[in-house]
Amino acid sequence: MKLSFTKLKPNSPDFRSIKQLYMRAFPDEERAPFLMLVLKAKKKGVDFWSISCDGKWAGLLYIVNHRDLSYIFYLAVSEECRGRGIGSAVLRSARKIYKGRRLFLAIELLDENSDNYQQRVSRKDFYLRCGFSELHRKLREGDVIYEILGVGGDVKAADYEALMKSYAGSLLSKLFTMEFVD
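Given the sequence above, the corresponding structure tokens read:
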């Protein structure tokens, strides 16, 4: 399996596929406006990757970097490519690309009353198998509370706040609830 990562640009041949996958893969309450993601990806420290496997488009990876911290905002593999180990390979590659950095992501809490409880369990198991560990922290973004998983070291509330302020800017970061909670 040969993966390749290409920075997404609005004129990229996979732009439409990436936008459609993004809209299908993430619920409304977990999605930032796609145009905002594209515009913010022009900033230094933001990587919006189009992922190909063996020459065929396979998914997306969106990472925000600040100092020694890298936050996986979004990772999605196209439905046609799932179940072939591509997601695991993407995470292995990401760990190499961002080597020496604290790499983390947020997943939905394991709430037994949620409609997608088994999917949440499977997702967490996947990340744990890929070498991520529980950081024993929770994050609230809007009305959704997430569990934090990571590799390379702990992520403190102040680290996250600095990352989000760098990414969103002072004004925009005040408009949204994005904070670590107990």
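The first helix runs from residue 15 to 25. Try to locate this feature in the token string yourself.
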